[in-house]
């Protein structure tokens, strides 16, 4: 894979349409909904990344998003991520126990640093697994460790470049929370000091009225709660934007593996390295000789292409024989792929204001 700027390409796609910030603001609000909200946001990000993996440049959809489809995609990704993290937790626990038994302080410090670094890199590998499950629409595809290792080992340098996205996101969110938290504490400090004084006085004597404590607590809550909600929402806006950029950057990285030529989840990968095309204001349609992927923008119905031999370059690894579908009159038509391309959860193209 040539040196591709995945982040800049993903940022151009994210901000290409007018009103691009509206989906981010809505998704940040959805994050306040327990369980369902985070799953839907994760599914939305993966559906957009899946389109980029197919080789189609499209901005995130702003209207008509099928929430049910996003929830299903998010739940599928959650199961994949959970399995990966459980296996990683078991592995790190075993290694930590062995190092602890040796009682060598230097090894323990080095192990802690190594695990922290590995956690960041593993988060990218897990996102690759989740996106692969989204492409196949099967949980098992995200647990195909051999195929995922094959992808990561082919271009680990390109994949791990994306580690800067979660790092920068954490720095931004951490800075917002720290500065805003100190500001809120300074505003509430007089009431906090008064509360401490009333508690000490009440414990020393029995003449204090407990209602004074309730009044002070209410004053603190009226100051802290609205500010905390606002700080949390602003932090979620940046977190959602970072997650969208990360997922789509990995989708752009996965584009080099010729997703349209994939067979079953256990088939070897047909790797066809190619540079990223420039981002334009006009959406790029998917190849007519392949099934259309799910899109992150409004649907476009392409004209049927005439039957002709495939002109795609031969994959580096010969694909395995695939099943073939038949038309109503019994004539064999096109090979089946792991994608249900006839459905449309997010569509193809861009929204028009």
Q: Notable features of this structure?
A:
59% helix; mainly alpha; single chain; disordered C terminus; globular; two-stranded antiparallel ribbon; 353 residues
The rounded distance between the terminal residues' Cα atoms is 36 Å
Overall tally of domains: 2
Global Rg = 25 Å
Count of individual beta strands: 2
Average pLDDT works out at 78
Total helical segments:
10
Across the major sheet, the strand order is 1-2
Shape: globular
What pattern of helices and strands is seen along the backbone?
HHHHHHHHHHEE
Poorly predicted runs of 5 or more residues: 284-353
Helix content: 55-70%
Largest sheet descriptor: 2 strands, antiparallel
- In terms of DSSP E residues, the strand content is under 5%
**Which structural class best describes the helix and strand composition?**
mainly alpha
């Amino acid at each position: 894979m040539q040196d591709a700027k995945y982040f800049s390409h993903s940022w151009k796609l994210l901000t290409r349409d007018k009103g691009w910030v509206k989906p981010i603001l809505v998704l940040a609000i959805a994050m306040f909904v327990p369980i369902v909200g985070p799953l839907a946001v994760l599914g939305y990000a993966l559906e957009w990344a899946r389109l980029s993996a197919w080789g189609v440049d499209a901005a995130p959809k702003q209207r008509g998003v099928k929430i049910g489809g996003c929830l299903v995609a998010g739940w599928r990704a959650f199961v994949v991520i959970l399995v990966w993290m459980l296996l990683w937790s078991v592995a790190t626990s075993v290694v930590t126990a062995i190092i602890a038994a040796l009682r060598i302080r230097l090894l323990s410090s080095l192990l802690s640093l190594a695990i922290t670094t590995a956690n960041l890199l593993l988060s990218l590998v897990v996102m690759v697994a989740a996106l692969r499950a989204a492409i196949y629409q099967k949980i098992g595809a995200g647990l195909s460790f051999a195929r995922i290792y094959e992808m990561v080992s082919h271009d680990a340098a390109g994949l791990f470049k994306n580690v800067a996205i979660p790092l920068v996101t954490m720095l931004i969110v951490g800075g917002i929370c720290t500065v805003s938290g100190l500001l809120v504490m300074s505003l509430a400090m007089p009431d906090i000091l008064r509360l401490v004084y009333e508690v000490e006085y009440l414990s020393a004597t029995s003449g204090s009225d407990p209602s004074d404590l309730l009044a002070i607590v209410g004053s603190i809550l009226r100051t802290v709660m609205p500010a905390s909600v606002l700080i949390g929402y602003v932090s979620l806006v940046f977190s959602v934007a970072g997650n969208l950029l990360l997922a789509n950057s990995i989708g752009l990285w996965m584009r080099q593996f010729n997703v349209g030529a994939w067979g079953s989840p256990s088939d070897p990968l047909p790797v066809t390295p190619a540079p990223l095309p420039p981002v334009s204001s006009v959406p790029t349609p998917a190849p007519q000789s392949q099934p259309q992927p799910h899109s992150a923008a409004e649907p476009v119905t392409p004209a049927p292409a005439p039957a002709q031999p495939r002109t795609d370059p031969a994959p580096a690894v010969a694909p395995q024989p695939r099943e073939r579908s038949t038309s109503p009159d019994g004539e064999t038509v096109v090979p089946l792929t792991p994608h249900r391309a006839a459905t449309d959860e997010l569509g193809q193209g861009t929204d028009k204001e």
